[in-house]
Amino acid sequence: MKPPAASSPGAAAPLGGHARIVKAAAAARMRPNLADYAATYRDFGWDKARALLDGLPNGAGLNIAHEAVDRHAAGPRADRTALRWIGRGRERDFTWRDLRAESNRVADALQSLGLRPGARVFVMAGRIPELYLAVLGALKARCVVCPLFSAFGPEPIAMRLEIGEAEVLVTTEALYRRKVEALRPRLPQLRHVVLIGEGGAATAVPGTRDWTAMMAAAGTDFVIPPTDPEDLALLHFTSGTTGRPKGAVHVHEAVVMHAMTGRYALDLHPDDVFWCTADPGWVTGTSYGIIAPLANGVTNLVVEAEFDAQSWYDVLERERVSVWYTAPTAIRMMMKLGTAALAGRDLSALRFMASVGEPLNPEAVLWGVEAFGMPFHDNWWQTETGGIMIANYAAMDVKPGSMGRPLPGVTAAILKRDEDGGVSEVTAPMQEGELALKAGWPSMMRGYLNEEARYRKCFVGNWYMTGDLAMRDEDGYFWFVGRADDVIKSSGHLIGPFEVESALMEHPAVAEAGVIGKPDPMAGEIVKAFVALKPGHEANEAMRRELLGHARKRLGSAVAPKEIDFRANLPKTRSGKIMRRLLKARELGLPEGDISTLESDER
Ligand code: ATP
Ligand code: MG
Questions:
Q1: Protein residue with least CA distance to atom 15, ligand 1
Q2: Taking 90 as the threshold, does the pLDDT of residue 136 lie above it?
Q3: Could you tell me the residue range of the domain that residue 581 belongs to?
Q4: Which of 5, 267, 442, 454 could form a disulfide with 256 if both were Cys (CB 3.0 to 4.6 A apart)?
Q5: Domain tally for the chain?
Q6: Is the ipTM above a cut-off of 0.90?
Q7: Nearest CA to 44 among 426, 371, 440?
């Protein structure tokens, strides 16, 4: 394999390269599900993926909750652990049989409220068992589930309930009191609020119902009504990294993708203990934190506590996690602490690690090898795609910095927009263009809620335009360049922020980097970097000069940052993505735009 060429003239080959390929043999300790990528890709058909699933009895269609729960509850896995919850000081295990009974109660209770199919049921809670039961039960009742991130403030919550025309909100008493109660008069369509008490205690708040009482009154037998695969199932708001969040709508057919990608991209095997660290308030936490593992008959671990490296390592060790799906922001925080925190731990059960949400810097992939004996496997997708589209598979050599190759059934291409509004494919290797996907995979969004025009704008002919820029190398690996909105144009060069950030991350003092284009009368834009340092390093003039020099050496002077500012932290969305548009707006003194998903940040 040839090392990929530089992405822009003047850059020293920044990403990947011969010496840095991680051979697959080190990554796979079990017979991988996708052993022969080329043959599987060639021979694939969606009918084959569909055949991995059951369908509702008597040909009554396809329902996500049936595939995730009832199907296994009726089979040999009925009494195995489906969901293992580790709360703060408490634990609870649910077998598939338990999950069936409990989600049936939810479905029965929702039906007794007189909800029509398609009614929107919003769920907002931390990672507690009731949330998972509510999601599965609502899907059984053919309601549309919309998870809301529990750390949102009152305004973003009310806005989403309003746009999403929520009829039911399932939340905790504490969250309701703090964030919803005062805004309730604004939400006339919200007919029912169901409150979960602290530790399962009963609640008695005016204008609401008590979860515990509703569950006690509901039956454990429920027959999922006929469900068309095209019936709406999930509504997910995007992260709002680039602007106002969009409500992407998904249908029950999406479970075909969840099951298939769980099997191929995450390499789930029946005896796995799978841990997805994403919050169910975001699409990853639903597609892979609930549906994909359960549909594959794999034990799904749910950990209530927020990120803390030591306690995460405790979970990996104690629970014998075998497949772990996490995000670059968490990996970078672990890197900040170094490998010492892992010394003496028995992580022998762990055999596959994957990452999503943001570009994964090559340094982070390789740190996986150093710290865990295997690389983090990057994969790429979006709220809109509903499931993983491009991935590094267990049986594949990893080129650190690459997102991997498209899933079987997924056609990905690099396109350039023409003057006349059409597109043409860029076939030469390592040329930048917009990453596009041929429409037609099962978990593709069916629309943006109430935003037909915004949805239409995503398509050119049969291509779904992702809004991300990427390149493809001669081996068919895709390389992320940056979001179209974030790309920097400097003296005729197109510079992807990811390339510059990754080079900065190679410096031992750097914990995080975010790069923007700053308007400049000579160059059009210059590259400006914001850097957070690891503990023990001082943000001073000497460090600034050192990092500028390091970047120039790595990237060449055309691409390296001209300016570096230090920050204690970089602004991130609550789903953990660096908000470059906000760094830029603040730098230029412009309005901050929609920051409803911003996590509080220290400047
Ligand atoms: P919004 O669309 O509201 O601006 P968002 O795009 O961040 O927010 P998500 O759907 O949560 O919302 O994120 C998808 C985006 O995240 C992708 O389009 C891409 O820019 C980025 N992303 C996700 N995974 C990866 C990855 N493995 N490598 C590079 N970028 C990634
Ligand atoms: Mg997006």
A1: 382
A2: yes
A3: 485-600
A4: 442
A5: 3
A6: yes
A7: 440
